[in-house]
Amino acid sequence: MDQDKKHAHITTLGSKPARLIDLINYQDCSVVSREIMTKKTGTITVFAFDEGQGLSEHTAPFDALVYLLEGEVEIVISGNPLRLKEGEIVIMPANQPHALKAIKKFKMLLTMIRS
User: Fold this and answer.
1) I need a labelling partner for 21 at 20 to 30 A (CA). Which of 10, 12, 14, 41 fits?
2) For 80-100, what is each residue's pLDDT tens digit?
């Protein structure tokens, strides 16, 4: 896919207002993601997790901010479980193991910052 087509949705989003929660839809038994911005310094992605879905423990080499748009999620960071509800945020520090599991289906904005 050429770069113009790959990033066409970013240009479209940048030219008009959009509601984050409306940029992605749930799919049964799935985790869905939509990257809305990619730069050398980081990415911004919206996710939709169906109830019970998750991401297994992993690490990332840069800090990540999670903003919960709706629903409820358990995020475990370095063995510490946290429950987030709509409107709450948490920062997942670089190189710290973390995992996510949907307590209820949820949507989130993930902002990853490379340093």
Assistant:
1) 41
2) 999 999 999 999 999 999 999
Q: How far is CA 68 from CA 3, 16, 56, in A?
A: 30, 23, 18
Q: Could you tell me how many residues make up the chain? A: 115
User: Residue 62 — φ and ψ, nearest 5°?
Assistant: -145, 160
What are the DSSP calls for 49-78, one per residue?
E-TT-EEEEE--SSEEEEEEEEEEEEEEET
Place of tokens 């990415």: 43
Domains of the chain are 3-113 (2.60.120.10)
Q: Could you tell me the pTM of the whole model? A: 0.85
Q: How far apart are CA 33 and CA 60, in angstroms?
A: 17
